[in-house]
Amino acid sequence: MENPTEQPTVLVMDDDEDVRFIAAIMLKRIGFNVDFAENGKDAVVMYQSKLHSGSRYHAVILDLNVPGGMGGEEAVKLLKEIDPAVAAYVSCGNPFDPAMDDPASHGFRGAIAKPFLPEHLQVLLGQ
């Protein structure tokens, strides 16, 4: 469903505006469009909306912990119900979190530690 003639789009869910801003700069530099959500609930709605429009996200990067909102682990479960093939990656500032150590057992394809580095995003997203 992703149009090969267009730049792929990545959905970044993070409650920190600075993280979203930096992620946008890095992702755009390596060839991606970027959409943002501040919490898991918004990310799920956006993902579902994109699928209903006949398109899809290249990947979704989900912040593990969102104070007062839905975090990445809960969001990835809902995303997998909508689309079992979702390319969801966990993001966290704590590299020792169990989801970072073993992302697959928590429903993710992979993990990326904060702060993001462009070369890590390139490897993670296959660009």
Automatic annotation (TrEMBL):
PTM-bearing positions, type 4-aspartylphosphate: D63
Matching InterPro entries: CheY-like_superfamily, Sig_transdc_resp-reg_receiver, ST_Response_Regulator
SUPFAM superfamilies listed in its UniProt record: CheY-like
Keywords linked to the UniProt accession: Phosphoprotein
GO terms classed as biological process: phosphorelay signal transduction system
Domain (Response regulatory): residue spans on this chain: 9-127
Record-linked PANTHER family: TWO-COMPONENT RESPONSE REGULATOR, TWO-COMPONENT RESPONSE REGULATOR ARR22
Protein name in UniProt: Response regulator
Upper taxonomic lineage: Bacteria, Pseudomonadati, Thermodesulfobacteriota, Desulfuromonadia, Geobacterales
